[in-house]
Amino acid sequence: VKMINDLNKNDRITNEEDTIQLGTIIGHLIDHKKLILSSMVMFALIGGLYSWIATPIYKADALIQVEQNTGNSILTNLSSILPDNQPASAPEIELLKSRMVLGGAVEELNLDIEVKPKNFPIIGRLYNKFTGNQQPNLPVISFNVPSENYNVEYIVKTVSNNEYELFLDGNKIFSGKVGERKEVNGVALYIADTTLTQGNTYTLKKIAEVTAISNLLEQLNISEKGKDTGIISLSINGSDPVKIKNILSVISRIYLSQNIERKSAEAAKSLDFLDKQLPEIRTALDESENKLNLYRQQKDSVDLSLEAKSVLDTVVQLDSQLNELTFREAEISKLYTKEHPSYKALLEKRRTLEDEKKRLSGKITALPQTQQEILKLTRDVQVNQEIYMQLLNKKQELSISKASTVGNIRIIDPAITNPEPIAPQSVLIILMMTIFGAIVSIVYIIIHTILHKGIQSAEQLEEMGMNVYASVPLSELQFDKTNKGGKLKAKRGILSEDSPADVTV
């Protein structure tokens, strides 16, 4: 029976040892409060140091309005309630993300060229922060390499205030001067005319245009503000506040320009057609005038009779009206079919004019041969003059129309960069690191408590069958002197002599 009781006691003691009471854990945390505070301070300092040396990140934004095209209000209302109706700004957002727009920005701003100062990752930043020696940017205007060397890192070293050297894998490719384009074996570099700082080193990389467009698309944030507002927000983050502002400015300008060009495309095509036709009509006019003058010289300046002049004026007016109907028919054919009343009225008027022209042609055949020839040549001159003047007037109208074309895109807020960086957020980083330091130290203390359990009370010894004759309270003074003596080799005295009133004595 005694053996069974001893076994039960040992099992109970073992279970108690395996169970860590909450009060015990809290007590250990209080005992190690200095460790916790030290850990919090250390991690807070690390967070502050990171915030100090981290590269600040800025944000630029812009606002663009997409104005709705006016149309049939009934159809517009119906389309707005249809399921899966696409917002009007959705196509414009995709257009902003297209290679046509972003590719133009990449080409104009040389975003396919990456230039960075070459420094040690952490030590270099710390040194620059302490000394205030910020390495200036290298103004690269163009950099071309063979396609197989895309994404390959080149090294540029400044050897004087206007000279540099280009290296690849430690091998010198060429030496060059600022303001001059240098090319050797398919590698070409052009640095703007500026004053260099001797001894600086830069990394230079050429990336494919498609890759540069993809990188730019990842940086851009394009979204509609609200639902069906037609207001598109553009934003981009970056370490260079001027660069990100220029990126949004160029994207907005290219997008606006293509919208206007798309709206004025019809007028542009008509102008191209007129530019080709005007020289031909002018040539025909000159030829008809030369033929008329030559015939009059041959016939001793024969003049038309009053009757012939009347017929000529009428024929010229008819030809002018027929030419005008041709222009109107070209415009109406884009809007209506030939069965439309407006189109039918135009064709009927054309037939009437052509019948009248045939009737006058009968009068012309009744005139003498010389009069007929003079009338024919004079009519050719006047008709060509009318056509030429009509084309000139039409060209002026189209030029005005093209110049005054306004797209349905409007830049509300031009690109601007917030002067205050959005990252790193120093206060938040320090706070999070402080909390993290507290968590690390607390977890360490709890694990240490679990793995290093000891005797917590005299009752545990008695339950194990050991006799306890006395319990001596812990002397804080003796404990501190013992710790100091262990670390500083200090001389330890007798507690009863040093502190006779101590509870332990």
Describe the structure.
The protein is an alpha+beta fold. It folds into 5 domains: 37 residues, no CATH class; 55 residues, no CATH class; 205 residues, no CATH class; 138 residues, no CATH class; 34 residues, no CATH class. It has 17 helices and 12 strands. The strands form 3 sheets. A 5-stranded antiparallel β-sheet has the order 2-9-4-5-6, with no helix packed on it. A hairpin with a 2-residue loop joins β5 and β6. α10 packs antiparallel against α13 and α11 runs parallel beside α13. About 5% of the residues have low confidence.
User: What is the domain tally?
Assistant: 5
SSE-based structural type: alpha+beta
Spans where pLDDT lies below 50 across 5 or more residues: 13-18, 70-85, 486-490
Strand content: 5-15%
Characteristics of this structure?
alpha+beta; 5 domains; 505 residues; 5-stranded antiparallel β-sheet; single chain
Topology:
Layout: H1 2-18, H2 22-31, H3 33-53, E1 58-66, H4 73-81, H5 89-96, H6 99-109, E2 113-117, H7 123-131, E3 140-144, E4 153-158, E5 163-168, E6 171-177, E7 181-184, E8 187-191, E9 201-206, H8 209-219, E10 220-224, E11 231-238, H9 241-263, H10 265-298, H11 306-332, H12 341-365, H13 369-403, E12 409-417, H14 426-451, H15 458-463, H16 476-488, H17 495-498
Antiparallel strand pairs: 1-11, 1-12, 2-9, 3-8, 4-5, 4-9, 5-6, 7-8, 10-11
